[in-house]
Design goal:
Elements: H1 11-51, E1 53-60, E2 63-66, E3 69-84, E4 90-95, E5 102-103, E6 108-112, H2 115-144, H3 149-175, E7 177-179, E8 184-186, E9 196-197, E10 204-219, E11 231-236, E12 243-250, E13 260-268, E14 279-285, E15 289-296, E16 301-302, E17 307-313, E18 316-327, E19 331-336, E20 343-345, E21 357-363
Parallel strand pairs: 1-21
Antiparallel strand pairs: 1-20, 2-15, 3-10, 3-14, 4-6, 4-9, 5-8, 6-7, 8-10, 10-13, 11-12, 11-14, 12-13, 15-19, 16-17, 17-18, 18-19
Helix pairs in contact: 2-3
Amino acid sequence: MTVNTDNESDPMTFRSSFSLLFLGCSTVLLLSACKNKNNDAAGQNGGGARQRTVMAEAYVVKPMPFAPVYTASGQLLANEAIEIHPEVAGRVTGIYFKEGSHVRKGQLLIQLNDADVLAQIAKLKAQRSLQQNTEQRQEQLLHIGGISRQDYEATQTDVKSVNADIAVAEANLDRLRILAPFDGIVGIRNISVGAIISPTTAIATLQQTHALKLDFTIPDQYHSYLKTGEKLRFYVDGMLDTLQGTISAMDPGADPATHTLRVRAVVPNESGQLSPGAFAHVVVPFASNNESILVPSQCIIPTTRDKQVALLRSGKVVMQTVITGDRTPSRVQIIEGLKAGDTILTTALMQVKPGLEVKLTKLQ
């Protein structure tokens, strides 16, 4: 029997030893990874626990006086303004105004050829005189039975018919005389004596400028703030003075397309310093409200659908939707959503969420 005395290891034994070593190392690595994961989770949980309370400053809502001011763009208009047109076609025989001059209501401005109408009126008046004489004679005959009542009444009808024809002719005569419908300043004329004009011919403009109208629009939400008789201020480009007007009228409803309301004010212009058509910057002061809710502007959190504030109740955050109104440089008016005595956060607004506990560091 031969005994093997060689010191080299058996291959099968080497492979088994290597497998056991690899398995041991893998186990150690796996345990280490699990430990690290557990440590990370614990660290995260610990961090979450530290984030449950946030330090912030807050503001206590209280009512205060507020008089909002709205700035609008407006236009100055003449108190009365027309384009002068003739009612009928005709030849101009006289022009009785000077361009750029002041004219009085009822003053003759333009005379059209009226010779044919005057001749017609003269003819009708002669016919009326004849019919009236006939009527008087027939009235005497009627009393003695020399004429029937039917013939007498027919003559009376003829007299009335001629009177009606004369009235029509005189109305046509009036259409040939163009009078000023109101006091005002007449503009540059576009015709000359001898011109044949028609109702489409613009002879000149007539504007009343001793007082002007100022028209502007405001959002319909301010409808309740304005009243007729209230004063407003405005200024015109190129003038240093701030002028004043009085609200005279408002449209009863808003434009459905723009949701704006047209407002008209009356502006005195006795000095003539203002011109119709000028652009005006209007400053409308609204009535003061002593119970307005104003909050610091940084408290408002805009979202995709609405605006919110972080309301503090029992030490926890409640996200409250609000409706805002006017603004000042540092505050925002709250129309709906808050009441006096509410506490809202002014800082740490990027960290807050519903239910978060808050520890106040400063309360205004």
